[in-house]
Design goal:
Blueprint: H1 2-20, E1 39-44, E2 49-51, E3 55-62, E4 68-73, E5 77-78, E6 85-89, E7 95-105, E8 108-119, H2 144-148, H3 150-154, E9 158-164, E10 168-174, E11 186-192, E12 199-205, E13 221-230, E14 234-242, E15 250-258, E16 266-271, E17 283-291, E18 296-306
């Protein structure tokens, strides 16, 4: 027992000396929890129903280092399997289909899936007339503005073009089929933003109408069809509105849009809620704009509407 007490005293003395000279046992830091990388799968147009053989543009929004992508489809085909954006083509037979993408970010892998219901169109029965009908006179085409953005024209809005700091922008209505999605006319925008602080845009405004605004409160989306003829396909879509009825305070918000180059005509569908701070019941103008981040190029726009 005497030896045990002596041993305990030595241990106590050693602990006391460590405390006096600042020597304490080393404590390993608690590792921080690893956050899940941000990955978002975007469809254009936003849909879950596709017709056999129809195409949908899919793109991945992700942040991080060492990004890589691996796409796969159960029945349909994909334009590429290792890029951030692909074109999905629905199979030739009806039924469900699933597209998956594995995104690797800094060594971590996140998988996103999207399911489609592939629909077969019902053939329209052929009608054979008993007598040759009298041909109707051809219907004259609608004026280009009315055909391209009927909601603006019916509300007596006016077109406008703004160019700042010697930027280059030309807008015109054309009947060239390469720049027409539907009907007989489309809008061609040719832009050149080669220096800093350049910006320009084209659009419609309701400033000079009876109320000075357009009521789009019954709509959920602002939509248009676009096709990139040249350049990266980047642009801004802006909405400006009054903040409240009877007040002159205005607010504008722009949404960045990237139209997939080389994919032909694609519908762009933007939820009105993305135009933060804009009152959809008091819209002052709609505009398509370009700045130094959008470089130069040519883009066609058609079938503009609030839906």
């Amino acid at each position: 027992m005497a030896q045990l007490k002596t041993y305990g005293s030595v241990v106590s003395f050693f602990a006391l000396m460590m405390g006096m000279y600042g020597c304490a046992p080393t404590t390993l830091p608690t590792p921080l929890p690893t956050s899940t990388p941000f990955v978002n799968l975007v469809l254009n147009p936003i849909t879950s129903d596709v017709v056999v053989g129809e195409t949908v543009a899919l793109a991945v929004e992700a942040n991080g280092q060492g990004l890589s992508f691996k796409w796969s489809s159960i029945r349909g085909t994909l334009s590429n399997q290792v890029t951030s954006a692909v074109i999905y083509t629905a199979p030739k037979t009806a039924g469900p289909d699933t597209v998956s993408v594995e995104v690797t970010i800094s060594g971590s892998t996140v998988t996103k899936n999207v399911s489609f219901d592939v629909i077969a169109l019902t053939a329209t029965p052929t009608y054979t007339p008993t007598a040759t009908p009298t041909p109707l006179p051809p219907t004259p085409p609608m004026p280009p503005p009315l055909e391209t953005f009927p909601q603006a024209v019916n509300s007596e809005a006016k077109e406008f073009l703004f160019i700042n700091n010697d930027a280059g922008l030309a807008s015109e209505y054309v009947s060239d089929k390469d720049c027409v999605h539907a009907g007989s006319s489309g809008v061609k925008l040719v832009y050149d933003m080669v220096r800093k602080q350049m910006n320009a845009g084209w659009g419609w405004q309701w400033n000079d109408t009876k109320n000075g605004y357009f009521n789009a409160s019954q709509s959920t989306f602002f939509t248009f069809w676009a096709k990139v003829n040249d350049g990266p396909g980047k642009l801004q879509v802006g909405l400006k509105s009054f903040k409240e009825v009877g007040k002159k305070d205005e607010f504008e918000h722009k949404v960045e849009v990237v139209v997939l180059a080389g994919a032909g005509w694609l519908e762009q569908r933007i939820e009105l809620s993305r135009f933060e701070g804009v009152n959809p019941a008091l819209v002052r103008n709609v505009n398509f704009g370009f700045n130094e981040d959008h470089a130069k190029g040519e883009i066609c726009i058609d079938d503009i509407a609030f839906k």
